[in-house]
Each structure stands twice: as C-alpha cells, then as structure tokens.
Structure of IS66 family insertion sequence element accessory protein TnpB:
Amino acid sequence: MPKGLQIIKENNNLAEWSRQVEECRTSGLSVRSWCEQHQIAVSTFHYRQQRVWKALQKSSQFVEVPLSFDESHNDNIAASVKVGSICAEVHNGADEATLAALFRMLKSC
C-alpha cells in the first residue's frame, strides 16, 4: 500500500478508536462490560487506547494559558492542579476549551 494511503488508513483507525475510547470512558460501564457489549476484546481495546494516547502526545502543541496572580480574586478559584513543580489554578467561569488545553498541557509534563 502506498505511504499516503497508509497514513489515511492509520488516521481513520485512530479517529474510530478515539471515538470508541471516548464512548467507553463516558458510558459508566467498566471496560470489560463495554467491550463485551461491543464485541471487542479487552486487550484490543487497551491496544487501541494506547495508540490513541500516543498519537495525542505526538500531536500535542504548546498552548499559552494566560495566568494572573491577582491576590484579591483567590475566592474565585474553583480548582488547583499540581503536577510535579507545576501548579495551575482554574477560576470559576473557565470555559471547556481552556480546561481542555490546560489538561493537555499538564498531561505532557
């Protein structure tokens, strides 16, 4: 198979596998139960999940998250996340896109 077609097939597989991982993780079922319902071997699911995560790590890009250190707004902090020496505070009203970018960045640390 020509290299371009291999890349297209791999991207299609990763898109489908990503959808499956998302569906499983948000289903409320255990991985085993979800896999049984969808006739997928648990080992196959874990392989696909690992491939999706590796692809996400390769494609992750630097995202600038504006930070402010205004001490008068500490009561607006909804959550604080610390990974190693990096600490991020999430303020009330943060939108989903900002949270997703923040967690992608923290995951890569």
In short: The CA atoms of residues 64 and 75 lie 24 Å apart.
